[in-house]
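quick one, 144 residues, struct below
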Amino acid sequence: MVLKDKIIHLLPFTNKFALLLSDLIEPSMGFRLYYHHPNTPLQELMNLVIKFISLLGINLNVIQNTLDSGYMVGVAVSIIYFIFSYLVPNMFMDDLYIIFDFLGVNSNMLIGLIFGIVVIIILDVIIINLIEKYKKELKLLKKV
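---
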């Protein structure tokens, strides 16, 4: 995979990367890139831009897989990306930080950043493997 493909695979996680970086830079710079609950129009605008980049990443992955492998793969990729790059991180990332608090992910911002990046990479690997598995299954069904 070339660098462009790797970046496109990680674009759907932009909001999580921004949230992780926000926790790291806020104490020293005094602002965040991403807000859980924006209070000002500027904070809302920043969140919208980051969410737009995340959605653009999902769309780019869906479009590429649809063009490469057809409509059925495109629909499957859409569902897989929605679940693993949007739903799972937004619903369970805070719980993972609570579960793995014994590692210091909540008390040390750098450890929290590294932990978050590892979780995102694991989710991306899951996405890639599920897509490849679906493509193989679809090819087997077409041969029968």
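Residues 3-143 form one domain.
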